Amino acid sequence: MVAKPESIKKRGGGRVNEQLSTFLKKYEERILGQSVNLRLLLSAILAGGHVLLEGVPGTGKTKMVRTLAGLLGGDFNRIQFTPDLLPSDITGSAIYNMKEGSFQTLKGPIFTNILLADEINRTPAKTQAALLEAMEEKQVTIQGETFFLPEVFFVVATQNPIEFEGTYPLPEAQQDRFLFKLLIDYPSFEEEKSVLKQVIEKRFDERNMSPSLNMDDFLNIRKEIEAVTIAENVVEYIMKIVRKTRESEAIRFGGSTRAAISIGKAGQAWAYLAGRNYVTPDDIKIVAKPALRHRIQLSPHAELEGAAVDQIIEELVGSVPVPR
Predict the structure, then answer these.
(1) How far apart, in whole angstroms, are the C-alpha atoms of residue 118 and residue 116?
(2) What pTM does this model have?
(3) Residue 291 pLDDT > 90, yes or no?
């Protein structure tokens, strides 16, 4: 069980950080039983990454993302991925305007701040690949013309782990584009009871949600996170963990250099949320599992023995000496 981080402390004038503290409080009031995942989701967007959410239907994945967008005050679009979805349905297309006698570019739903790619594994690889350029380079090419995406661009893709008929597993190259893979489990009895009461009493109306942050404040927070210190011994700790994934007999393909970068950036964001301007080894331990679980492949003998990816990661991280 991951311990709940300490509350956010003030830095400098403290105005933006008070807003972030209010943001988290409102977020956790609306989404119950997922405190750690909410903080990891917020850490990902603060670090400039993207998230893959996996969980059974009805566990609040869509609401989690929609609420994040509402509290952030950014533009939000949702795409339901289906087998007949085309790449142009995501990016947009150029059409001929007969009245003006010229081509006109119609931008797709990808031009937003927060994009929910719902059930991404229900569409073929060709359509999934339409997200690759956008997620990596924050730009989209339509009929040879390049368009830049907003500075705050965050993709959250969901997938259902229990249905495999009519699904198309995400290619490894696309999975590596995600900073985190978060597993959404059922809440506890009391938490689930509170969710039920919340819905029955209509305690929160998503349509009347007021933002807790604006984009300028959010970008200022991002700049502060970039200044969070990662000491040399912590950088070495990250590298030892990633390289260990390449040396383990239980792992067929280990983490890439991008995996190490993701852990470092996520560690900065997590430390900031904990009220510190420096990263500790404990921060790295917390973010390592969601940053690695979708980037490594178990060897055939480990799969035959029924080994779980999370278990292997925990053992690897535990085997690396913690810097003092």
Answers:
(1) 6
(2) 0.86
(3) yes
